[in-house]
Design brief:
- The protein has a single domain, classed as Rossmann fold (3-Layer(aba) Sandwich).
- Helix content is 34%, strand content 16%.
- The protein has 9 helices and 9 strands.
- The protein has a 9-stranded mixed β-sheet, sandwiched between helices.
- Helix 1 crosses helix 2.
C-alpha cells in the first residue's frame, strides 16, 4: 500500500513556519498571482461546536454523501475567506496547512483516496465545494495541495473545474494511474490498489491501459485558465517514478504554455515534505488569497 513515510513536524517547527508566513504576508503586499473571485455570499460560520482541535485550531468533522469531511477554521479569517483543500494524508507533514491557518485560511479535507480520482471522487468533491462556497461563503477558488496518490483527485477535479482552482501544490504526486498503482513502468505498482482503482473507474485491465483521463492527459483546461502549479519530487523516487509522473506532466504543461515550477528533492525517495517549506507556503498564500 502506497503511503508516505511517517515524517511529522514538532510544534516548534509548525509555529516557526506559521510566523514566517504571516511576516511574508505583511511585507510582500498584494499577491502577484491572486486568483480569488469575490462573491456576494457572506461568510456563514459552522453552526455545530467543533469536534476537536487540530494543531490548536477548531476542527469540524461531518459526513457528506457518505464520506467524512474535515474543516479546520482559523482564529481570524482572512479577507475573502480563502481556503486550502488538502487532497490526501491529512496528518502527514502538515506544516504548510498550519501556516496558512495562521494566515487566515481554512483547511479542508475529504477522504476519497480509495476512489483514485475517479468520477465518483470528483462528484464527492463537487458536493463539498458547493456546501462550502454556497452554504458558508468560502472563496470560489481554493488552493489545492496533494501528496502522492492525492494527485489523482486534485488534478482530475481541477481539470473538470479549472475556473474553481487558484493553484496546485503537489508533493511526490501520482499523475498517471498506469504508473502507480498499475506498475506499467519502472515502479513496482501495487496489485491490491490497482484492483481497487479499476473498480473505482469501472475499467478492466485493457481499457485502463487505453484510458486517457489521467492528470497527465487533462492539462489543457488548466493551462488555458492560467492555473499555476508547483511540484516537489525526487528523481530517485522508486514508487512513483519522476519521469512517469511529475516529469511528463511538467513537460506537457510547459508545452501548453502553462506555469509550473518543479522543486527537486535531492537524495529523497518517496517521502513527503519540502525543507524548508517557506517557498511552498508563499506560493499558496500568493495564489490562494486576494
Amino acid at each position: 500500500m502506497l503511503t508516505p513515510l511517517p515524517q511529522r513536524c514538532d510544534v516548534a517547527t509548525v509555529r516557526r513556519v506559521a510566523t514566517v508566513v504571516v511576516c511574508l504576508g505583511l511585507t510582500l503586499g498584494a499577491p502577484s498571482c491572486a486568483r480569488f473571485v469575490r462573491h456576494d455570499r457572506p461568510y456563514v460560520p459552522f453552526a455545530t461546536s467543533p469536534s476537536s482541535t487540530w494543531h490548536g485550531y477548531a476542527r469540524h468533522d461531518f459526513v457528506i454523501r457518505g464520506r467524512g469531511c474535515t474543516v479546520v477554521t482559523p482564529q481570524q479569517i482572512a479577507e475573502g475567506v480563502p481556503w486550502v483543500w488538502r487532497a490526501s494524508f491529512f496528518d502527514q507533514r502538515p506544516e504548510v496547512e498550519v501556516a496558512l491557518l495562521e494566515a487566515g485560511f481554512h483547511v479542508v479535507y475529504v477522504d476519497v483516496l480509495d476512489l483514485c480520482g475517479s468520477p465518483d471522487a470528483v462528484a464527492q468533491w463537487d458536493a463539498v465545494y458547493d456546501l462550502l462556497t454556497q452554504g458558508h461563503g468560502f472563496s470560489a477558488r481554493p488552493a489545492l495541495t496533494a501528496i502522492s496518490r492525492g494527485g489523482l483527485i486534485a488534478y482530475n477535479w481541477a481539470t473538470a473545474h479549472p475556473d474553481r482552482v487558484a493553484c496546485i501544490f503537489a508533493d511526490i504526486p501520482v499523475c498517471d494511474f498506469k504508473s502507480w498503482p498499475g506498475g506499467y513502468g519502472r515502479g513496482p505498482g501495487d496489485a491490491e490498489e490497482w484492483r481497487r482503482c479499476l473498480r473505482a473507474y469501472g475499467l478492466d485491465e485493457a481499457s485502463a491501459l487505453r484510458f486517457g483521463g489521467n492528470p497527465v492527459d487533462g492539462l489543457a483546461p488548466l493551462a488555458a485558465a492560467g492555473v499555476p502549479l508547483l511540484h516537489a519530487h525526487a528523481r530517485a523516487d522508486p514508487l512513483v517514478p519522476f519521469d512517469e509522473n511529475t516529469g511528463i506532466l511538467a513537460e506537457r504543461y510547459r508545452a501548453l504554455g502553462g506555469d509550473i515550477t518543479v522543486l527537486e528533492k535531492p537524495g529523497a525517495g518517496h517521502a513527503p515534505g519540502v525543507d524548508p517549506p517557506e517557498q511552498v507556503i508563499e506560493f499558496l498564500r500568493r495564489c490562494g488569497a486576494g
